[in-house]
Specification:
42% of the residues lie in helices and 16% in strands. The protein has 264 residues and is α/β, with parallel strands linked by helices. It folds into 2 domains: 2-203, 2-enoyl-CoA Hydratase, Chain A, domain 1 (Alpha-Beta Complex), CATH 3.90.226.10; 207-253, Lyase 2-enoyl-coa Hydratase, Chain  A, domain 2, CATH 1.10.12. The strands form 2 sheets. A 7-stranded mixed sheet has the order 1-2-3-4-5-7-10, with helices on both faces. It has a 3-stranded mixed sheet with strand order 6-8-9. It is globular, with a radius of gyration of 19 Å. The model is unreliable at 81-89 (pLDDT under 50).
Length: 264
Amino acid sequence: MEEFETVEAEFDEETHVGRLTLNRPDALNALSDQLRQDLVAGLQWLESHNEDADGIALRAVVVEGAEGNFCAGADISEFSEASPGETSGQHHYEFIQEFPVPIIAKIRGYCLGGGLETAMACDFRFAHSDARLGLPEVDLGLIPGAGGVQFISRLANPSVAKEVAMTGDHLSADRADELDIVNRVYDDADLDEATREFAETLAAKPPLAVQAIKDAANVATQVGLNEGRSYDRRRFEPLLETEDHQEGARAFAEDDYDPEFRGR
């Protein structure tokens, strides 16, 4: 385990899964500048396990909050200290989106404002049935500043984004699931088990292909269909030359062969 001031990071060498815990429980894990910086530093520490590995070691990451809450949003106490136009720490959203392995947000308790934007920057969102999600910035006379409206417009549709952001209401996990803001909802210990199993399932897949799929899905939100299909083709052809493709093809042909994907 590696401990930062406001984040804890762990890497399981056996499963190839990393875990990041936002650790400001007294502030409901609100996003201070320090937490934003530590979140990036924690991801960088996890990624560093690939440097001397035989292939790609880190295959998936789970992000969660300490002591029952994911993240209650931005630390409002720091707003008055920011200069106009200052975006200190904002890049953690882009860092998550561009991170080379899939990231799963495991959501309990409050997931509001910048906390929800952080979760939506992740590739997947698994929520506890008691979680509460929302974009309350409107009640401060603000717009969600890190892409909340954009994220929901893409995950659901612009009308849903307007409803969530204009009302500032807290959504139940089930309602967020109906609106396609979260992927799955679970009760109690089921959330831990389901998230762990899903992360390990992703970690067992060919990592170069998983990375390419993540990139392709991100590109799909930015370009038209034909350009997106061209991008997919460009990513497809190099994968034909990888050892992982050979492993997968052998496993497909031989029922009793258990492939070992290394990211090469």
